[in-house]
Structure formats: structure tokens, C-alpha cells
Amino acid sequence: MKMQDIKQEVFSLTCTTNTQQLKKERPDLTQGRDLRYKEQWVEIQRKVKRLQEQGQDMSLEDIEQSEQMLKNSLFEIGHIAGLSNDQIEIHWQRIKLASQFGDVHIEEL
User: Fold this and answer.
1) Phi, psi (rounded to 5 degrees) for 55
2) How many Å apart are CA 42 and CA 2, to the nearest integer?
3) Rounded to an integer, what distance in angstroms lies between the CA atom of residue 94 and that of residue 43?
4) Cβ distance 35 to 4 under 8 Å?
5) Which of 1, 3, 52, 64 has a C-alpha 20 to 30 A away from that of 10?
């Protein structure tokens, strides 16, 4: 398979249109790679396919949307519980910090 064909498949699988967009939206796939070489594109292609098979392939946009939905839900619940926006924002920042060090479970919220 030619490098251009592999690149086009990667773009298709990641819903991107070019290398610049792929680097911006999917640094998890491109960081530390020299994209001038076919072998790097083959590795990206394999990784994307493996992630999709495992149901773990999410774009940066998907992650940001999920984060926003979670934040909105937290604010709704916080208001129901009688918390102020400032109190809810403090909880949100704590959750974001905790998520950097491990999984955050809905029960903890």
C-alpha cells in the first residue's frame, strides 16, 4: 500500500482531512512521530484500528463534548442540592484534577 493511501485511510478513520488537523485533534496518535515516513503512518493506522476495535477511539472534539456534558450535569445537580456556582466550580476543578491522576467514577461525584 502506498503512503498516500495509508494517510488517506488514517484521515478517514480519524475524521480529519490533513496532517495538520490530525496533529491538532489527535496528538495521542502523532506526538513524537516523524510523519515523513511511511512506517510512522502504518503505526498510526494500526493504532487507530486497534482503538476502534476496542471501542476506545475518541476524537478531541468527542472528549470536549463529553466533558462539557459532565460539567453541565454537575451544575444541574449542584443547583438542585442548593450549591452556589462558586461551590460547584470548586467541585468541578477538584474532579478535573483528580481525573489527571486516575479514573473518576460517577459515584464519587
Assistant:
1) 70, 25
2) 10
3) 36
4) no
5) 64
Can you tell me the distance from the alpha carbon of 52 to that of 56, in angstroms, rounded to the nearest whole number? 6
Helices 3-14 and 38-53, axial angle in degrees (round to 10) = 30
Q: Which amino acid is at 54?
A: Q
Grid cell digits, residue 55: 471501542
Hey, CA dihedral for 71, 77, 80, 85, is it positive or negative?
Answer: negative
What is the chain's Cα-based Rg?
19
What confidence tens digit (pLDDT) does each residue in 50-97 have?
888 777 656 666 677 788 888 899 899 999 999 999 999 998 888 888
**In this structure, what are the phi and psi dihedrals at residue 18, rounded to the nearest 5 degrees?**
-160, 175
Sign of the Cα pseudo-torsion (35, 40, 42, 47, in order): negative
Three-state DSSP at 11 gives: helix
